[in-house]
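User: For documentation purposes, I need each entry recorded in a consistent format: the amino acid sequence on its own, followed directly by the corresponding structure tokens. There are two entries in this batch. Please keep commentary to a minimum and don't merge the entries.

Assistant: Recorded as requested. Entry 1:
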Amino acid sequence: MITVEQIRDKYASISGELNERSRRIWAASEAIAIGHGGIKLVHQATNIAKSTIDLGKKDIAQCSRESSLRIRRKGGGRKSLESQDDGLLELIERIADVNSIGDPETPLRWTTKSLRNITSILKEKEVQISYGKVRLLLKKAGFSLQSTRKHFEGKSHEDRDQQFQYINSQTICFQDLGCPVISIDAKKKELVGNFTNQGREYHKKGEAPEVNAYDFLSLAEGKATPYGVYDIQKNNAWVNVGISKDTAQFAVSTISQWWIQMGKEQYTGVNKLLIHADGGGSNGSRNRLWKSELQNFANESQLEITVSHFPPGTSKWNKIEHRLFAQISKNWRGKPLKTYQMIVNLIAATKTSTGLKVNAEIDPNIYQTGIKISNKEMENINLHRHQFHGENWNYTIKPNK
């Protein structure tokens, strides 16, 4: 029978050659050889903790499992294609490289750079390889499937940055005076009906909503045009859901409704309003009807209305895009917009962690298109152009007294 003294002598003879892992594995193997009570004996002889000996037993069991799963010796088997051909990875990179599109010699200049096409080109070069292996090598080289990214805004105006600075200074000035600053725009038109809507939400397996196979206008109840007014200071918004065209009359009607329903109560005693707007569309900087309707609103509300338009190609900088419209899209993702009332309810239910509050309403009015404003009518607009780009970008419309 093995004694404590025997284990102690054995341990003393080899302990100087052992590291932390080999020490616990040795202790565990001694305990296993002894059998019942082995851990206690080894602990008494070597002062190695029982928990450490248990950990060594797990190390031994893990090594045993890994070695039992190995069929051939380490390093055996067929060599990889890239180790047989040093230039294979470089060849695949050259074919798949996006910069090679401009090279008239590249075989994939006018074709999709899919795995199968790349594999086909390699086989034409007498390289026998599967598209699965091509995928692994592309991943190894740092390639991955990617879609295009919206980045370039097109030709920018030379005074673009100065206009942003001007809008910022105007905003600070109005906020210091306690006057409202709103960001306005029309959201993308939506088909009203049982149509697919981008995005996903949780449902029980097999219970996803079923929608029409085709997004034909003839199957729709109509089109909804959400036009929004976002109050930058208060972090709240008003959205008119139009059933008609997106016109200047519709845009100003939405602003008027925001003022009546929300703004007037929140900004008592003020007589100025600053509007951030895109440069085109129903609230465009060159839109005569837009200015004419703003004059009517100024007369009704007795507000001095200052408008600052974003430079061409910069509409995504408008705060309403990401602070309101993006949140609405998240709230109704994956939901068919079956009725106008459902659209209104989903918009009004939009909330964020920062406290966004949204009110929404259907605008039943039918707005005409093609309304022209004459030069004489333009002369009746109490329009004051600012010194900096007052021709289109920055102007104030005061009430006609």
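Entry 2:
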Amino acid sequence: MIMRRRSLPVLLSLLLVPTVAGSARVQTADEVVEKHIAALGGRAAIGKLTSRRATGTVTIATPAGDLSGPIEITAKVPNKTRAVMELDLTALGAADKMVVEQKFDGTAGWTLNSLQGDTPITGNQLENMKNGRFPTSLVDYKAAGIKVELLPRETIDGKSLIVLLAAPKTGSAVRMYLDPETYLGVRTVTTISTPTGDVEQVSAFSDYRTVDGVKVAFNVQNSNSQQTMTIKLDKVEHNMPLDDALFSVKAPGPIYR
């Protein structure tokens, strides 16, 4: 099989970047955060969540054509995450499929690739994963050592958006663009590390739906100078039992169950 593989390690870097976003018509960062949490469903509803399983489809735009397939994203408190996708490689002239799985057990991370082999997650990407909290880092950002600052508004697509800057002790800072009408996240901008260097990544959120009293974005588009990945969720479940082994770097977990 002949195919271009240089860009493939970037794929999962697009998935598990911390996604904390919110909005408000207030004048301090703390007030913005509280408006955002209320918009998501409130601290009580958020506090009841212990895990999430989201399933849907993923599409990655490439010069040769779109790669698509099913995707499953799972998370467990406080910061365990796993994403696995199965991509149809027909657009690249390959008859088989590629399974890519990225998992983080709260301390260590690993990328499992059915064609390229397995590699540990290190450096900036690992620090960014450590900064993530399920379901949102903003609930206890001060305790996590994240500094949140209110920046001047920016106009995007003709709309003036509130902007927060969340800066962790280590890892990349995240600019969060907030809808002043709904207090829900519109986009985030951060820096991610790829095999070819650091790139700026934009994550756009839409199609919010209420699941178990909490708002979830069912459409997420992650884009940078190298590629664009669009995730469309079909189903989101909360508080199902998830064995810690699912997030372990030691062995692949089940796919699409």
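Summary note for entry 2:
DSSP finds three helices and 13 strands in the chain.
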